[in-house]
Amino acid sequence: MTRIFSGVKPTGHLTLGNYLGAMRRWAETDQHRADALFCVVDLHALTVDRDPARVRRLSRQAATLLLAVGLDPERCTLFAQSHVDEHTRLAYLMECTASDGEMRRMIQYKEKAAREQARGGSVRLSLLTYPALMAADVLAYGTDEVPVGEDQAQHMELARDLAVRFNQRYGMTFVVPRATLPAVAARVMDLQEPTSKMGKSHVRTAGIVYLLDEPEAVRKKVSRAVTDAGRDVVYDRAERPGVANLLDVLAACTGGDPEALAGDYASYGALKKDTAEAVVELLRPVRERHAELAADPGYVDAVLRSGAERARGMARPRVDAAYQAVGLMPAG
Ligand code: AMP
Ligand code: TRP
């Protein structure tokens, strides 16, 4: 059976980008067609300075939202990365497989490190080594497919390279995984800045739709979305990024095709109105289910506890095998 693994970092409130790019597929198809694991990758939230209480709160909220979007603990394994030691055990071997140069070439590292330095802050070493931990997350489970948004494509290429290199050096140990991207909305853009990704840790929030936004907030953000010069509605990602983004979002919500949808609209106003309503309706059940689940934190804890136990059992043999393959002595 196909093995699927994916994760979300608790670095901010989850967004419409997270949902359309990744989480919706996890719930609607992935958990039904494969042996799937979904993880709150909390260790990845520590690559920049964060208040511990906030890390804790956002981790719990992310886990609750994974259940709220429809992940069913009877069908998939849902857990927190920090509860399964195999991830960091294997990350070390991945650091021994990767080179300094290939880590420094990662776009996300370059961008985030530059931002951190511009603020006068220091860059944590873990920001550089992050893709080794991400590769470990995926490889520990013999993962075939990793459903992610487009921003993760480069990290996934690296994970594949590391798997192939390790297998060549030490013998067949890891499955070489592949990223799967959604057909539409693989990269949802910021509504205020349609040439940048809608990212949950951005400081300016007016262009970000959060999964838990009230309907009125969603309507306001979409109605104020930056559109492009011109008046006619055409789908052109390069020349009309603002309008193309709205069409992508509308298409992803309604199941249509962004280019075909463009023909249905004579004005930006009408497009914004329909997009806002489509997003409101898409998020309504998620918000309602989140409210129910948040009232029962004991349930979420129990799901994560049994998920971690199951995940540990799945990862342990492969990580042990990797330790022995590189020449380390068996512990038992
Ligand atoms: P992150 O928020 O970086 O932990 O991302 C969790 C998942 O959501 C990953 O698969 C990302 O690729 C995806 N994702 C995050 N932001 C977006 C976005 N703006 N558009 C599409 N997918 C996204
Ligand atoms: N790096 C991913 C992101 O920023 C999160 C992540 C960590 C992940 N480990 C993973 C995604 C393993 C898929 C598989 O979105």
Summarize the structure.
The protein folds into two domains: 3-180 and 297-325, Rossmann fold (3-Layer(aba) Sandwich), CATH 3.40.50.620; 186-295, Tyrosyl-Transfer RNA Synthetase (Orthogonal Bundle). It has helices at residues 16-33, 52-68, 86-95, 100-104, 107-118, 125-139, 153-170, 215-223, 241-254, 258-262, 268-294, 297-325, and strands at residues 3-8, 35-40, 77-80, 145-147, 178-180. Strand 4, helix 7 and strand 5 form a beta-alpha-beta unit.
Can you give a write-up of this model?
By secondary structure, the protein is mainly alpha-helical. It folds into two domains: 3-180 and 297-325, HUPs (Rossmann fold, 3-Layer(aba) Sandwich), CATH 3.40.50.620; 186-295, Orthogonal Bundle (Tyrosyl-Transfer RNA Synthetase). Helices cover 54% and strands 7% of the residues. The chain is built from twelve helices and five strands. It has helices spanning 16-33, 52-68, 86-95, 100-104, 107-118, 125-139, 153-170, 215-223, 241-254, 258-262, 268-294, 297-325; strands at residues 3-8, 35-40, 77-80, 145-147, 178-180. The strands form two sheets. Strands 1-2-3 form a three-stranded parallel beta sheet. It has a two-stranded parallel ribbon with strand order 4-5. Helix 2 links the parallel strand 2 and strand 3. Helix 6 crosses helix 7. The longest helix is centred in the last third of the chain and has 29 residues, at 297-325. The model has no long low-confidence stretch (mean pLDDT 96). Bound molecules: adenosine monophosphate and tryptophan.
